[in-house]
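Sample entry (517 residues):
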Amino acid sequence: MEKWSLMTITVLLALTVRWAVSLGSYSGAGKPPMYGDYEAQRHWQEITYNLPIRQWYFNTSDNNLLYWGLDYPPLTAYHSFVCAYIAKLINPDWVALHTSRGYESQPHKLFMRTTVFVADLLVYIPAVILYCFSLKETSAKKKASTCALCILLYPGLILIDHGHFQYPLSLGLALWAVLCLSHDWDLLGSMAFCFALNYKQMELYHSLPFFCYLLGKCFKKGLKGKGLVLLAKLAGTVLVSFAACWLPFGTDVEQIMQVLRRLFPIDRGLFEACMFSSPTHCPDKVANIWCSLSVLIKIKNVISPRTQLKLSFAVTFLSLLPACIKLTVQPSLRGFKFALVSCALSFFLFSFQVHEKSILLVSVPVCLVINEIPFMATWFLLVSTFSLLPLLLKDGLLLPYAATTPAFLALCLASFSILEKTSAEDLQLKAFSLSLKGYVAWAKAFPRIVRSLFLLSLSLMGALSVLSAAVPPPQRLPDLFPLAVAVVSCLHFLLFLLYFNVVILWDSKNRGQKKIS
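Predicted structure, serialized as tokens:
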């Protein structure tokens, strides 16, 4: 009973923080003609409610795709329709065709914010709570509420979902999939992940670890016996799940092709994460390798879009290959969670058309291992929130950012004593360290070096946050601070990618994992 009481307090605190953030501004508020993501979600409700399904993804006189046309998979569209149906009952003006464009009012803001709260309460928060209770380690079980509080108060997700405006459904469904796999409910896990992927195509960031882990389980069971049966069941589950999501579009091949063209608009180029951005939005200032390199080399001016696509695919594939091979050969739940982090980070750093919000696809898996590597997880989550700073400043979310980020750091310091867990063993680098010559000589200095780098990183991020918020940039360099934030964050992410791959590749014990049979 006591642990459930603590968890109730945890959830109430998490909801209070979300409510406080939601009182502020949102993406594109009062900024015509395109407004922002808030208007995009409202517009999708308008389109899905008033137009037949066959017109949802097509450019027509009633559906101008240049004005926030649907570019997410069918489950997003169905969710928009459900929200629109409720909105219509409350106030038909909110979803009136054409005339509701750019609609802004306090009652409507309350309705939209409430839809995000409901999604959080029904999908994301329960998955986090059950995941924390399912942790195998005894010490982690005692800290289930603490672990859940740290995950639920991760500022990046709160600021984007309840500030900028976004639904946590795809990430929540992915969490349910991880939870199911942790209990060996492989078919339910596969179905949950299929739904996540059919809500947002960016869940492809997580697809390879799911595929490799389940394929590795099939290999371990033997492809001439139980493994083949499991593989057939998994294939059937995926096919049925996709068929259910795409059924309304399955009667016409052109419908399917048009939806796919909307989901993967490769002609936009390497950097065009959102061709419908508002005039104030700067999509090129993303903390990945391509945008950071563009400071020195204008890649989009010297390489054709098709070549950009091939280059980004090759680099992304090579960067995630080691972790995927290891997971397939030695499938373990622990390895699976770390592979989710590594592969998602590879996609963020090297793939095609990355949006700054995509870092959340890395951050949520990092939250899943915060009990195992609290120091590095906390550090990463702080950097990921910092990388969103230019977007948050445009949305008027400086105050929530300045309040939630230090509070999160303080919470992690108090909950996990992270500054005391910086040894090679604490960082899960003992096996790697022992393989290096002269390990004993620098082992004692290692924790001090790591802490110094952490404090230097915090100081740099703090200074750039203050400069970005308070100091006007030079007239000749108007994007100086957003670029600095992107480059500094990218350098951090590259080092984190190296770190997570080292942990994965040098982990031969798979501690705490039950044998797959």
